[in-house]
Amino acid sequence: MKTILKSTIFAICATVCLTGTAVADGHLEKAASARKAVMQLYSFNLGQLGAMAKGAVEYNSETASAAANNLLALVSMNQGPLWPQGSDYVSLGHEAGAMPEIWSTYPAITEKSKALMVGATNMAKVAGMDLASLQGAMGGVGGACGGCHKVFRKKK
Ligand code: HEC
User: Fold this and answer.
1) Ligand 1 centroid – CA 54 distance (Å)
2) Which of the two ends of the chain, N or C, has the fewest CB atoms closer than 10 A to its terminal CB?
């Protein structure tokens, strides 16, 4: 009985303890969730600007400035800690998410972040001026989002 119990405990430990890093290491999941939350905030603010740009919502200088400044603030955050190695969708066993290539080709992704910084900075400068200026800045931001997603994001 003692032996059986011991070997059971060993068997449980062998499973849990060996896979422990992946399973118990909640910080990788947390980082991926936090990243998605940031992306949702990008999307919300860009959505407000996009709605005005295509005329679905009437242009309003203050609303446009606020959304553009929010986007720039988000893009300006130090996001390094949100991208730990091992938080790609394959390692986490998710259906979708960050491509492993982000880490294997690093620092290639930083070019994509820089493109978004340029687009968001320009948008923050001009969004409050008038509708035509906002419309003119949309491509720079939207293109930067898509430019990174195309290479580094796995969709469902
Ligand atoms: C530097 C690369 C990069 C840039 C730039 C970028 N994204 Fe993403 N985005 C990702 C990755 C990678 C994912 C997959 C989720 C993850 O991080 O694991 C993602 C996921 C998303 C998601 C899905 C989030 C979820 O809940 O699953 C949305 C929405 C999104 N991005 C919006 C945007 C918008 C809008 C912009 C531009 C303002 C943008 N992204 C710019 C890399 C980027």
Assistant:
1) 22
2) N
Other beta carbons less than 10 A from residue 98's beta carbon:
23
Going by alpha carbons, the residue nearest to atom 8 of ligand 1 is 39
pLDDT tens-digit map of 93-143: 999 999 999 999 999 999 999 999 999 999 999 999 999 999 999 999 999
The string of pLDDT tens digits covering residues 57-67 is 999 999 999 99
- How many Å apart are CA 88 and CA 102, to the nearest integer? 8
Ligand 1 atom closest to the Cα of residue 43 is: 35
Distance (angstroms) between ligand 1 centre and the Cα of 39 equals 5
Write out residues with Cβ below 6 Å of ligand 1: 32, 35-36, 39-40, 42-43, 46, 97-98, 109, 112-113, 116, 141, 144-145, 148-149, 152-153
Tell the residue nearest (CA) to atom 35 of ligand 1: 43
Diameter of the chain by CA atoms? 80
